[in-house]
Amino acid sequence: MFRCATSSGTITFDTQGSADAVYSFLHVMVINMAELYKIEHAVSEYSSNVNNNFPDFARSIINFVRTERQLTDETSPMELLVDAGCGSGGSTRIFAPFFKRIIGVDPSEEQIAAAKSDTNCDNIEYMLGSGENIPVEKETVDVIISYFAIQYMDLENYVTECRRVLKQDGLALSFGHDYNNIEPLDSGDSKPVQDILKSFFEAAKIFFTNNRPDLGCWLDRYQSIFDNIDGINKKRVDDICHRQEMRLIDFKLRLLSIPEYRSYDEDVHLKTGKHPVDELMLDIKRRWELSQLPDAEIRIIMTYSFFVICLRK
Ligand SMILES: C[S@@+](CC[C@H](N)C(=O)[O-])C[C@H]1O[C@@H](n2cnc3c(N)ncnc32)[C@H](O)[C@@H]1O
């Protein structure tokens, strides 16, 4: 049984446990993708497979913030960070060491409930809210972050809210990342596979452009979002990269846990009988001459290339 709150009410339906059926159904319904994060199944899939646990990235962001704000004390925590679109807290927790207080906000009750179930950080609270409606007093926030969430916000209202809640030298940082490269860790011929990744993401981009221009806006590294932001100082940061060890199957599950890619995968499957995410894994393994191994037995190093939009009053 799956429940999904949409703008037209709550949809409840029995799919006998098939996540694919849910995604196909929603794809046909063409609902707002942000609402997919309200499906209970999607919440747990996203939080267990999309491990945005990048402590090194958090440190890079904090170094950038300190430089921008000309803070010379590198050890004292700052007062208040807001994570707008915190989801189940994956992007929030990595900033815990750097702030006295952190508030994670998300419009999805299901995501907030999942975030609250992790009680490891005393300085983090989770609340219902959104980028356009941050439940804090004016001029109290040092840093707003939003990780893969700005695409769901009304940009004009988000900018107005940033201007309201940020301290005079506060910063709002919206970021995401590309899957820049993967390399096999143990064995095989580690021929580069960037061209294979590029073809996959190009094909997804064409699908999004033709079918749902509102989706996949991270595929241009948030450039169109950046261009559409007005009424506040803005700049881009594009030079932060980090590496993470995982298995090939984790990469596959990660892609399929992102509703937009799931929708793309299902659509192509309906038309061609092939799942592009499976094809991607097969192409990579062929290139490495590891076709005989299951995805779960191939350890990889993923290189992420981050893109950041930085706003300040
Ligand atoms: C891709 S998830 C990212 C979650 C989390 N930041 C992470 O990195 O794991 C996007 C999140 O944006 C939330 N969202 C949707 N509309 C939003 C809005 N207007 N303001 C803030 N967050 C929103 C969704 O509910 C979802 O939790």
Describe this structure in a few short sentences.
With 313 residues, the chain is an alpha/beta fold. Helix content is 37%, strand content 27%.
Descriptive notes:
The protein is an alpha/beta fold. It has 3 domains: 2-49, no CATH class; 55-179 and 217-242 and 304-312, Vaccinia Virus protein VP39 (Rossmann fold); 183-214 and 243-302, no CATH class. The protein is built from 11 helices and 9 strands. The chain has helices at 19-29, 40-49, 55-68, 90-93, 109-116, 155-165, 194-211, 223-227, 248-256, 259-272, 276-288; strands at 2-6, 9-13, 78-84, 99-106, 124-128, 141-147, 166-184, 233-247, 299-312. β3, α4 and β4 form a beta-alpha-beta unit. The protein is globular, with a radius of gyration of 20 Å. It binds S-adenosylmethionine (SAM). S-adenosylmethionine is lined by residues 34, 37, 50, 52, 84-87, 90-91, 106-108, 111, 130-132, 147-149, 152-153.
Which helices and strands appear, and what pairs or packs with what?
Elements (H helix, E strand, L loop, with lengths): L1 E5 L2 E5 L5 H11 L10 H10 L5 H14 L9 E7 L5 H4 L5 E8 L2 H8 L7 E5 L12 E7 L7 H11 E19 L9 H18 L11 H5 L5 E15 H9 L2 H14 L3 H13 L10 E14 L1
Parallel strand pairs: 3-4, 3-6, 4-5, 6-7
Antiparallel strand pairs: 1-2, 7-9, 8-9
Helix pairs in contact: 1-10
The structure holds S-adenosylmethionine.
